[in-house]
Amino acid sequence: MSKIFVDACFGKETPYTPVWMMRQAGRYLPEYMEVRAKAGNFLNLCHNPEMACEVTLQPVDILDVDAAILFSDILVIPDEMGMDLSFVKGEGPKFSDPIKSEADLDRLIGGEEAASKLTYVYETIELIKQKLADDKALIGFTGAPWTLATYMIEGQGTKTYNICKKMMYSNPDLLHKILRKVTDVVKIYMEKQIEAGVDVVQVFDSWAAAIEPGMYDEFSWKYMVEISEYLKEKYPHIPVILFPKGIPAFLDKVYGNFDVFGVDWSTPMKFAKERLGDKYVLQGNMEPCRLYSKEATTKCVEVIQETMQGKRHIFNLGHGILPDVPVENAKHFINECHRVSGKK
């Protein structure tokens, strides 16, 4: 059976515009919180294929989104490379052993060896594919090398990125070595996700906006393009979505062999369409906080539909859904996307 989401990723005509939400499997759903409580902690949930499968499928059943996105975390990659990851309540992810030197990098495993340790992710994908409806797509994902590197160097989330950026300007060779090692793992990790059964892959560069526009290609985009081109050469039937958050200044310089460009909420859809709409299918880009108001949601969905005219577009938020959004409002968003784009 053809999947509307996959067809839309390739820019084909579809009966309506498909929709999914970043972070759609997550804390705003009471059903997710029940499974999370059973798991004991977030990492346990990521490591348990049955539970990860269950929470991946929840938004498909509850909201009627057109694609499921694999439940996992971007930081399982550095974790399996040999870094010590923990999730601290109220503070988020932390590495006790951030990379400060080449010796720190050298102690980490890379390539096939690291990617092969992520068996629980591949098992989760296989389970999801057994249970997911034939007309729904499954999206696999990874963090972009730059976003992963920020956590690996800073040791945790950061508002200033000063440790990473100090390395960028004072020791760029070391930063490129870190990015190279991570990129080589990511390429094989994505390949193994595809072999396990995902229909589409997305690369999230959540912290793209931390890099000044003139440096973005060198320290992030070229690595993302390398990953996408590696995958497109081996798996031309698998769409690749690239999502760099917060880089409207870079749109004129976007290049590479991939299928869908994720537009974040700070970039006007009309602006993105003018610059990229002929080259790539566009995904996005409602401001996630509009989900607090059904009226504000409807207004935005109608404007995006008017801009895109149902062509070369996938509805989504311009970043992830927030934990305190009412489930009814999330359903309203999905229903409105389907309504304005003509789903009967």
From TrEMBL:
Tell me which UniProt keywords the record has, alphabetically.
Cytoplasm, Decarboxylase, Lyase, Porphyrin biosynthesis
> What coarse category fits the chief subcellular location reported for this protein?
cytoplasm
Which pathway does it serve? Porphyrin-containing compound metabolism; protoporphyrin-IX biosynthesis; coproporphyrinogen-III from 5-aminolevulinate: step 4/4
Any one Pfam family match given in the protein's UniProt record, by short name: URO-D
**Residues flagged as site, Transition state stabilizer:** D73
* EC nos: 4.1.1.37
Q: Which domain of life is it from?
A: Bacteria
Q: Where does substrate bind?
A: R23, Q24, A25, G26, R27, D73, Y151, S206, H319
Which GO terms label this protein's molecular function in UniProt?
Answer: uroporphyrinogen decarboxylase activity
Q: What class of enzyme is it?
A: lyase
Where is this chain's protein located in or outside the cell? Cytoplasm
Q: Which reaction does it catalyse?
A: uroporphyrinogen III + 4 H(+) = coproporphyrinogen III + 4 CO2
Instruction: Enumerate the Gene Ontology biological process terms.
Output: protoporphyrinogen IX biosynthetic process from glutamate
Q: Name one GO cellular component term.
A: cytosol
In this chain the Uroporphyrinogen decarboxylase (URO-D) domain maps to 18-27, 139-155
What PANTHER family does the record point to? Answer: METHYLTETRAHYDROFOLATE:HOMOCYSTEINE METHYLTRANSFERASE RELATED (PTHR21091), UROPORPHYRINOGEN DECARBOXYLASE (PTHR21091:SF169)
The record's subunit annotation is: Homodimer.
Q: What does this protein do?
A: Catalyzes the decarboxylation of four acetate groups of uroporphyrinogen-III to yield coproporphyrinogen-III.
The Swiss-Prot or TrEMBL record describes its family as follows: Belongs to the uroporphyrinogen decarboxylase family.
Name under which the protein is recorded: Uroporphyrinogen decarboxylase
Organism, by scientific name, is Sulfurimonas marina
At the highest ranks, the source species' classification is: Bacteria, Pseudomonadati, Campylobacterota, Epsilonproteobacteria, Campylobacterales
